[in-house]
Amino acid sequence: MPKQSFYNHFQKWTDDYYIAYNACSGAVALMTPEHYATYEALVVKLNAGQKDGFNEKEAELLKQLEYGGFVCPDTHSELQDLQFKHNIARYSCSNLSLVIAPTMACNMACEYCYESNKTGRMSKELIDAMADYVEVRAQGLTSLDITWYGGEPLLAMDMIEELSGRFISLSEKYHYEYGASIVTNGYLLTPEVVDRLCELRVKACQVTLDGPASVHNKKRPLKNGKDSFATIIRNLNYVLGKMAVSVRVNVDQSFSVETIGQLLDELEQAGLREKVSINFGHLEPATQVCSNISESCFETLAFSKVESDFFKLLLEKGFRIDKLPAPSAVCCMSQIVNSFVVDPQGELYRCWNYVGDVSHSMGNIADVHNYQHPNFLKLFSVDPFEYETCRECNLLPICMGGCPDRRVSRGLSSEQVCETWKYNLEPMLEIIAASRQQEARRRAKEQS
Ligand code: SF4
Ligand code: SF4
After folding, report:
1. Cβ neighbour number for residue 262 with a 10 Å cutoff
2. Pocket probe mutation, ligand 1, options 99, 333, 339, 375, max atoms within 8 Å of Cβ
């Protein structure tokens, strides 16, 4: 007998449409008021235990609802299924993901940076140890994903070259898929560097622009005090079409719709509209080192409001949105047994926030992993299925319990642990629906 999914979200959008969203399958559908009336009639019958004998319209709608995961057999436990998929993702060793910081040095001096004033580069011995580490695990590996991180990873381009070459050779020997991405401030992303990174299979980059030129240049000056915005924009123009480009904007209370609007206008003038996708980072004092910024940060609830306002602005101005709420088996790498952040000394971490702070290391890449290490277990053992509020939450498939570090390290209230979608789902569903329509129009235009 069919039943409604617990993870359905329906809401009126305009006079012409209702939005139907299923957080488990990620399906989005637009229903006319007539369809929605059919849906309501159908739900009454399903809740009364009716198995068949539906009229033609109801039978057709039921088929579509089953296809989108809005309806499932009543013998099916959605929660158990989610937990099963969560555990597969958590313990799978067929994929190895490494976030590698070849150096902690940086050419910028951002006010909020927890990596500031750190130095250190990988030694030749460590590069050998990293290649050995991958080779030992290569048999049985189906994919190796690398994210180049830092500090500013492009200050260690020679190490990216050396390690990429080793990982690619191993992929040919052991037949695993190899792919990489890079998180960079973009200043050193010159055409020569981009061409070389493409040869080294770096397929995507994330670059931070903290506002329009006048704001960004104050928030993210170079170490020598000079501006960086114009150079980054020039570099991004060359990257287009060679790598996927995601622009991250770290948001604190100094940002307004006007500030973001100005940034988007400048990106449009630079020819980047529709070519880059944009995501908004919720700036938070993640460690002691950056506690100095805590007064300027948004609380989760306040951030959820500005986040949806900024997303709406992106759509109005024809920009692509990166990272809309979507189903995911885990919240982040800290819950995946085979994912690590590696610092220039080979120390391993479970979370991006702690790279370079050896008090959070779970051991060195040259040693055998200790899965009983408190710094491994601290975040890995956070399991959303152990929390009643998460088990009973109809956003669990897209949130998966929220950031484990926020939950266990920072003494936050349960409201602050929840992702912003808990508070802004209504506008976010409108944004999801509008962005799907925008993408469909874009595809149709490209094909015509
Ligand atoms: S624990 Fe939180 S901050 Fe760390 S990687 Fe996961 S989501 Fe990000
Ligand atoms: S952290 Fe909050 S939003 Fe996320 S699953 Fe748990 S209760 Fe839901």
Report:
1. 16
2. 333
